């Protein structure tokens, strides 16, 4: 049994693109060592992130993320045990919607492909539906 958390948050105005990229580089290394997978979407100064892995490891990371002062208004969208990891190939996939229209369209295409190609078991899971619904809402405003 795994554990999944999805939250949304707002980036601090001074959390620059360069710093976000560096944070993610370190996050990926940490996640890989701890068997954590997931994805993060950045759009309109908002983050939506899913983290999944063993329960203790995920609760530990989520406590750190909630206390991280580079973002605020961290709101839990779902937090529950799950049978499967949705992002098992990714130590933290990043979909950035803060670039040019062309780059944003590319990120949108990649995400939509992911949502379409998920296997049918995943597609009906509460975690998948929560992620999809909230991500679509977030990126529909750009
Ligand atoms: C939006 C956001 C997402 C983050 N995602 C991760 C993550 O997936 N993995 C990770 O190790 N740290 C992530 N962090 C960084 C953690 O909050 C924390 O800085 C990191 O785990 C290092 O903590 P430590 O030095 O106290 O061990 C994220 C931070 C922010 C603001």
Strand and helix layout:
Elements lengths: L1 E10 L5 H18 L2 E7 L2 E8 L1 H13 L3 E12 L10 E4 L4 H17 L2 H4 L2 H14 L3
Parallel strand pairs: 2-5
Antiparallel strand pairs: 1-3, 1-4, 2-3
The structure holds flavin mononucleotide.
Please characterize this protein's 3D structure.
- The chain is an alpha+beta fold and 142 residues long.
- It has 5 helices and 5 strands.
- A 5-stranded mixed beta sheet has the order 4-1-3-2-5, with helices on both faces.
- It binds flavin mononucleotide.
- Flavin mononucleotide binds at residues 9, 23, 27, 30-31, 47, 49, 51, 61, 64-65, 68, 70-71, 92.
What's the short story on this structure?
This protein is α+β, with helices and mostly antiparallel strands and 142 residues long.
Strand content bin: 25-35%
Biggest sheet overview? 5 strands, mixed
Strand/helix succession = EHEEHEEHHH
CATH architecture: 2-Layer Sandwich
> What's the overall geometry?
globular
Can you give the helix content as a percent range?
40-55%
Radius of gyration: 14 Å
CATH class: Alpha Beta
What ligand species are in this complex? Answer: flavin mononucleotide
The overall number of domains is 1
- The end-to-end span amounts to 36 Å
**Count of separate DSSP helical elements:** 5
Number of strands: 5
Going by helix content, strand content and strand pairing, the class is alpha+beta
* CATH topology (level 3) name: Alpha-Beta Plaits
- Quote the average pLDDT: 94
């Amino acid at each position: 049994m795994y554990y999944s958390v999805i939250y949304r948050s707002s980036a601090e105005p001074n959390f620059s693109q360069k710093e976000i990229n560096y944070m993610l580089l370190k996050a990926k290394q940490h996640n890989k060592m701890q068997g954590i997978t997931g994805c993060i979407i950045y759009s309109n100064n908002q983050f939506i992130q899913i983290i999944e892995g063993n329960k203790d490891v995920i609760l530990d990371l989520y406590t750190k993320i909630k206390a991280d002062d580079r973002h605020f208004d961290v709101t839990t969208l779902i937090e529950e045990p799950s049978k499967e990891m949705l992002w098992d190939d990714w130590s933290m996939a990043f979909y950035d919607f803060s670039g040019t229209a062309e780059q944003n369209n590319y990120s949108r295409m990649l995400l939509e492909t992911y949502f379409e190609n998920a296997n049918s078991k995943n597609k009906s899971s509460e975690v998948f539906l929560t992620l999809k619904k909230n991500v679509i809402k977030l990126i529909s405003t750009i």
